[in-house]
Amino acid sequence: MRPRLRAFVWPLLLTLLGATIYGIVRFPRNRAFVDFEVYSRAGGRVWSAEPLYRADDGHFQFKYLPAFAFGAVPFAKIDQNAAKAAWFTLTFGLMVAFVRRSVRALPDRRLPEGSLSWLTFLLLGRFFVAELSLGQANVLFGLLLILALADVQARRAGRAGVLVAVATFIKPYGVLLFPWLAVVGGLTAAVASTVAVLIGLALPATVYGWQGNLALLGDWYRTVTDTTPENLMYGQNISVTAMWTKWLGLGPPAFALGAATGLALVAVVVWVWTMRKRAAAPDYLEFALLLLLIPLLSPQGWDYMLLLGTPAVACLLDRFRDLSLPWRIALGAALLLVGFTIFDLVGRTMNDFVAHTGLISVGAIVFVAALAHLRARALA
Q: Which helix (H) or strand (E) is 318 found in, with range?
């Protein structure tokens, strides 16, 4: 098949496959697309210039920056069954692109692209399924960032800065990449990302006015901070603060140890960066580490956000045979723990035990340690 024809046919086939899966599966109605409904409701409120952040929305409050709601307006203005089908199909295509792009961006790859893509998807499939069923936007966020990485690798710093900024309005966690981007992309990336952020922050003023926009930003901050403590108690929260909360209970000791663990993880990233001269192409591993840290550092770090660890898992799988036996054992156990401790495979008792003892968080921390080990040995 000719390259141009293949570039057209594959997205079309994937779109049709995604639409077919949506029509066949139709997840349980009491859980299906609950997060997409939050986006759609926010888009409708923007259209009517109504407040976005409301306590009476309960657990499903809109917690994203105001600019994100503008992107949801088209989905709010069409039939909601059609909107959900469209979002599902779009997310399915983005999921495939995210995995493939993550594998293709990996320098000095040992394994074939197809094999590594399937292995990575197999290990993280549980999180992609949750993403699809909930109607989440993490895949879109991750794809924009992996495209930004490709631009960094190609020395297109300005475009990388814009992509990271746009991703941050989808998920505010993108701010974690700003310092790294400013270092590896230089002044061009820093200026481009700053300008894009300022434009995005000002966008809601076109509907709400300047004072209304400032009020929205204040409401966003209060919503995020006020709902954090209750979210730490959920078994599906894998942040390091939630991990300590599961062990010690909700209170100052868990918060202090969570903050200390988070700082230690950031210190690992900084150390990895100081060792970047050991690698011929250091950007990928540093980027993978930062994406992996997002669910661990965010108080809203739900387990399905570990799909952002796709670049990290792809790198670890590709370099697995280069590791010593003790590291293979530790990493293999962590991969199995994170990827396969699901209800359908291990049963409710084991699934609940893993969720409520913070073991998924521990597995993700092992990923962080293994990536740092790869840099220490100049393997990535």
A: helix 310-318
Question: Which amino acid is present at 25?
Answer: V
Contact 330, 370 (CB under 8 A): yes
Asked if residue 262 lies in contact with residue 296, where contact means CB atoms within 8 angstroms, the answer is: yes
d(CA 260, CA 175): 20
CA distance 242 to 236: 9
Task: Return the half-sphere exposure (C-beta side, CA atoms, 13 A cut-off) of residue 165.
Answer: 20
| Beta-carbon-side half-sphere exposure of residue 226 (alpha carbons within 13 Å) | 14
Where would I find the beta strands (DSSP E) of the chain? none
Residue 15 has pLDDT above 60, yes or no: no
Burial code of 67-85, b = ≥16 C-beta within 10 A, e = fewer? bbbbbbbebbeeeeeebbb
The pTM of the full predicted model, rounded to 2 decimals, is 0.90
CA atoms of 182 and 254, how far apart (whole Å)? 32
**Token pair for residue 122?**
């197999």
Rounded distance between C-alpha atoms, residue 125 and residue 315, angstroms: 17
b/e map 265-289, b = 16+ CB within 10 Å: bbebbeebbebeeebeebbbbbbbb
Whether pLDDT at 8 is above 70: no
CA-nearest of 75, 74, 76 to 45 is 76
Residue 379 amino acid letter: L
* Residue 100 DSSP SS3: helix
- Residue closest to 87 by CA, chosen among 24, 151, 190, 18: 18
Of 221, 195, 174, residue with least CA distance to 66:
221
Chain segment 260-290, per-residue pLDDT in tens: 999 999 999 999 999 999 999 999 999 999 9
Kindly report the CA angle at 311 between 307 and 317, in degrees rounded to 5?
105
CB 318 within 8 A of CB 110: yes
pLDDT band at 139; cut points 50, 70, 90: very high
